Amino acid sequence: MSLDIPRSTAAPAAKPRSFLHENPSVLWFMGLLGVFTVAVTVLSEGFGIGMISTNLVKVLGMTLCLCLIAIAMDVVWGYCGILSLGHFAFFGLGGYAIGMWLMYARTEIVIRDSLGRGTIPPTELEVSEAVAAQIFGVVGSSELPLIWTFAGSLPFQLAMVVLVPGLLALVFGWLAFRSRVTGVYLSILTQAMTLALSLYLFQNDTGLRGNNGLSGLQNIPGFLHVPQSVLSVWFFWASACALGAGYLLFAWVVSGKFGSVIRAIRDNEARVRFLGYNVEGYKLFVFTITAVISGIAGALYYPQAGIINPAEIAPIASIYLAVWVAIGGRGRLYGAVIGAAFVSLLSSWLTGGGAPNIDLGFYRIVWTDWWLVLLGLGFVAVTLFFPKGIGGVFDYLVRKKP
Amino acid sequence: MSTLLEVSGVSVTFDGFRAINNLSIAIGEPELRAVIGPNGAGKTTFMDIVTGKTRPDTGKVLWGERSVDLLKYSESQIAKTGIGRKFQKPTVFEDQSVRDNLAMALKNKRGPFSVLMWKASAQDEARIIELAEEVGLSERLEDSAGILSHGQKQWLEIGMLLAQDPRLLLVDEPAAGMTPSEREHTTDLLKRAAKTRAVMVIEHDMEFIRRLDCRVTCLHEGSVLAEGSLDHVTRNQQVIDVYLGR
């Protein structure tokens, strides 16, 4: 057969190795995500036999968004060694950016509807004043804050989903990395940023409705007639696509020489400098791109959650994120997905009243009280006994080729 | 032979301790130079200053034909202008393969975007194989660097240094932990490299230095005590007192 031509010995030993061939876990992940998406669709109320409730579809869609921010966290922490305790702030900012449009546009539709019933059509000024009064009545104001100027424009707010987290990460990262702040000091600095942002958003003067946050985000302007059972599946699909695309992007970023350099930075950044690499530039690149992906994840999460408030941005959320990635296994993208899905679903099961309380006779274990203790013990156990996390199990299953 | 690196009047103090005291030293291109001296003489600190790790209090470090002031550059910029360094303790990236370690050191564009798009060209691939052969790691290309022996890690680091294709190689105790035949190989390699570049070697092993057969600089208390041929330096009474005599 003509296929048996011996390889030319003069050719250099460069083997053409394709990206997917080198990273079989990517194909596995994509396959499983596809199967999961189809399964949820078939079982949903909106498109299938209705075995799983609309509410559960939303929980699963939100979980996919959490998996997306978890892989971003894994790249910045597990691969590049920057323990950021601020990525949930970027997630929240993405949510706020899209939430402003959702809230403004929907309120505008409702206002036009009610004002339009009068004999004289309302002027634009009347509409915008009524919208402002409707949205900000709850914080005792009727003025539209400056940052809401373009809230009625979907393209503008979509751009903000990417730009606000991206620019904040760029400026913050530039200042922090340039001063060579590393390790635990950098973690504290990112946490301080998160706390400051959260406290800032709690103020009514900020113009984002203070502790009330933005609500009613599950109603999508233009699709107000579409039932939630259908919308929830749409968002589930969007979340699955975003997770798939994010996974591919990060798998590609960490697989080649770039991945090699950032892992080297994690292990010994001084040595990487002496090889001629601008370590700060790499850190800034990784910090910013993961912040942008976190913002996108947030923009998909909050329309499914329906509400966003400053408590979501509190430092504890970012600490949870680090815990998910640690439990799932750092330095492998599927580990982050497993950790985020496993811990967040377990958390909603145990704290949402799904798990039966255990009566020991002398004491009643109420899971809503004990969940955090369990999580803490789990985290300590994983750190001490299974530093590779749940994902480490796959190392035993897959024998590495010699 | 023209002067490649000129260090003049450099002093540095750590918490009142004068590690480098008005040190002036120059190296040409091509040239092989051995640096000896007792512990604490400032040999490693001197390399730290040249590579940008330590900033001196006073003095000048000038580089190349246009006499650029290296003190204004960051570590990575200095490395990019053509100064490569091998550390005393071998520092390779242990959880990455020998191939990845070498690929990272290869002389290519260093910016994040170029590296993101980088694909090994046939030329890069051939260079990696050539380097691996040079340092005797051809069979270990796909192994992770962490499982190499101490001597092999030394070799890998030397390979990475050559991959950078620097004009000046600063080599800190390359022969530590090597067998006699490996030492011989190292000597050959350094001598060959010094035919086209400037090479500075810190070493304690006088046999090793004798084989290098080059100009020797002896440092003591942060400044040059003696400089010249090995015989000239070893005959110097001060050198015998502070270093050889012990």
* Biggest sheet descriptor of chain A: 2 strands, antiparallel
Give the tally of structural domains of chain A.
1
Strand content of chain B: 25-35%
**Tally of DSSP helical segments of chain B:** 10
| Helix and strand sequence of chain B | EEEHEEHEHHHHEHEHEEHH
Q: How many whole angstroms does the radius of gyration of chain A measure?
A: 24 Å
Give the integer mean of the pLDDT values of chain A. Answer: 89
Q: Tell me the Rg of chain B in angstroms.
A: 18 Å
**CATH topology heading of chain B:** Rossmann fold
Instruction: Give the uncertain stretches of chain B in residue-range form.
Output: none
Using CB atoms under 8 Å apart, which protein chain pair has the greatest interface?
A-B, 25 and 33 residues
How many helices of chain A in DSSP terms?
Answer: 14
Shape of chain A: globular
* Helix/sheet category of chain B: alpha/beta
How would you describe this protein?
- The complex is a heterodimer of chains A (402) and B (246).
- Chain A is an all-alpha fold and 402 residues long.
- Chain A has helices at 19-22, 24-43, 54-79, 87-115, 124-136, 154-178, 183-202, 228-255, 257-274, 279-305, 315-328, 333-351, 367-385, 393-397; strands spanning 214-215, 307-308, 358-359, 364-365.
- Helix content of chain A is 66%, strand content 2%.
- In chain A, the strands form two sheets. A two-stranded antiparallel ribbon of chain A has the order 1-2. In chain A, strands 3-4 form a two-stranded antiparallel ribbon.
- Chain A is globular, with a radius of gyration of 24 Å.
- The two termini of chain A are 30 Å apart.
- Residues 1-14 of chain A have low confidence and may be disordered.
- Chain B has a single domain, classed as P-loop containing nucleotide triphosphate hydrolases (Rossmann fold, 3-Layer(aba) Sandwich).
- Chain B has a six-stranded mixed sheet with strand order 6-7-8-3-9-10, with helices on both faces. Chain B has a four-stranded antiparallel sheet with strand order 2-1-4-5, covered by helices on one side.
- At the A-B interface, helix 9 and helix 10 of A face helix 2, helix 3, helix 4 and helix 5 of B.
